[in-house]
What does this fold into?
Amino acid sequence: MINMNYPFPGTLTLRGRIIDREISLADNAYYQKARDLTTRVKTSYYQLAYLEHSENISNKTLGLLSSMKDISQALFKTGRAQFNDVINVQMKIDKQREKLATINQNKEIIRDRLRRDLNLPDNIALGKTAESEPGADIPAAVATDEIINLGLKNNLEIKAIRIKLEKMKLMITMMEKMFYPDFASPNSYFQNRESKMIGSAAKMATFPTNKTTKSDPWYGKNNAYIRELKDNYQALELNLADREISLRQQIKQTIQEIDEGRRKQTLFQDVLIPQADQALEVSQSGYQTGKVSFADLLITYNQWLEYQLNYHLAVRNIAQKTTKLEKLLSLNIKVMEKNNGEKQ
It folds into this structure.
């Protein structure tokens, strides 16, 4: 008797579906690489923008220090200031020039990183960054829960785990069909014909029509492999649940960091920097008339410089955290804004 050992049509279909999942995993890996590249480029770009603002502030600071030095020298000549005032201003000028040189070096490092990520030749010059409002693309009307749901739906790492689960489930089904065939009529596995037994007149009756399975002395030998697949499937389900919890926490934390950056940006831009500008102007005038000491003038200057740098640091942090949120969502913020507008 000839056994029908060719694959069943259902098994062939399952193999095709498994291949489809492998193709989906390959596509997912490609999009992950593209997303990570976009994140690196945006992060470097915002760091470069921050360094350019720091350079502008440093140049402006050098101008203020030069003015303070001229005032100190003039007051020293008239006997209304000490020579230490002139020395202290010169020391700050030297420190600021050193800081400016470091900023320029860091800018070149960032530009080299951008050229590498963008696959540009080394001789290509990169211009200045454009002025933009970081974080402005995030629609304030979208609730945190909606953003989290978008992340759970679109995050590429979670999508990859779900595709792996589908693939593994199909593999388990295929293995069970191959190793444990479905019950079927005997003529599905054996030729249904009469055969001679002993003697010229003896006949063997046809096979009964009741359901049975193919006789195999090694039946069930692959039980361990199927059990291992099922255990791996359950472990991957637990991994998916853990990733979803972690993603929720990361999205919440990133949104909070963006909100904190916005509050700091508003505080420095609308309150602290205007007050620091006025305080520095008053201190300079008071120092010229002898009403303000040089130590108080330096304190006011340091405060002004700190507020200027912290404002642009907050702007950079908002932009980089927004980029991080886009990576977690595996979605461009502008797409989320468009979808939110359509709902409204």
Residues 184-219 form one domain.
